[in-house]
Write a structure and sequence with these properties.
Elements (H helix, E strand, L loop, with lengths): L7 H13 L5 H19 L8 E5 L11 H13 L4 E3 L7 H12 L4 E2 L2 H7 L2 E5 L13 H10 L4 E4 L24 E5 L12 E5 L5 H6 L13 E4 L8
Helix pairs in contact: 2-3, 3-4
Length: about 240
């Protein structure tokens, strides 16, 4: 299977096309992204393996893309699946969309934790939804400390779109927080990003909503999704081709 990676610039343009030409709303894109993330969690870590899922969300970016509401949506779906998720959200998005996602979690009694070092010790799996495809560094507080704590922890990690701290084009930083961060699982949303060529774990793709015109415009060659699944597992080779 050979899938094309898409640059952060093209990923942003694709999101814009989906909303301005395709008729999609930001809410819908967040929902589909979060649903894909939740299915990936269930695939690699069913509730029988441990229900305590810690979802770490990064700052929203003024509602211009799905980042990082997908973590909040995933936590909601995980609660409905029978997990016991908790959310660490150190820099909350202030616009109405993020506040509504937070209200939905409050209504399901999903806790928002403040003591991250304690929470990470009891987690069965951590979802890294801190940064999206637009991240280019440098890390700003409090995220260097958070990423260092995730990197040092023994809990398995599923990262969304890219392991947080990684450059979307260049992969892991050469030194400092994240330089040795290699999560067990990665889910790419819509299409893989170039940094997948540095990744060495199990890799999933979630993007079962793209139209033929969009895939042709961006030269995407997406796989067939089995059954009713929103995700498909794909491999990664040394040249960044999937």
């Amino acid at each position: 299977m050979s899938l094309k990676a898409i640059s952060s610039k093209d990923a942003a343009s694709l999101d814009k096309d989906l909303m301005e030409i395709g008729g999609w709303s930001l809410d819908q894109l967040m929902e589909l992204a979060g649903l894909s993330v939740s299915q990936a969690v269930h695939r690699v870590h069913p509730p029988s393996a441990g229900k305590n899922i810690l979802v770490v969300c990064g700052p929203g970016n003024n509602g211009k893309s799905t980042s990082r509401g997908d973590g909040l949506v995933a936590a909601r779906h995980l609660a409905q699946y029978g997990y016991e998720p908790s959310v660490y959200y150190p820099k909350e998005g202030k616009n109405e969309l993020y506040q509504r996602l937070k209200t939905q979690l409050d209504n399901l009694s999903v806790p928002f934790i403040t003591d991250f070092p304690v929470a990470i010790k009891s987690a069965d799996l951590l979802v890294d939804a801190i940064f999206g495809f637009s991240f280019g560094g440098p890390l700003r507080d409090p995220f260097p400390t958070i990423i260092s704590q995730i990197e040092a922890a023994s809990v398995p990690v599923l990262s969304v779109d890219a392991p947080s701290s990684w450059d979307i084009e260049g992969g892991p930083p050469k030194e400092g927080p994240g330089s040795k961060f290699m999560p067990e699982y990665l889910i790419s949303l819509t299409a893989p990003k170039p940094c997948v060529k540095y990744y060495q774990g199990r890799h999933f793709l979630g993007g079962r909503f793209l139209t033929k015109s969009i895939t042709e415009k961006y030269g995407l060659d997406l796989p067939n999704y089995p059954g009713i699944d929103q995700i498909v597992e794909v491999g990664v080779d040394a040249e960044g081709r999937l």
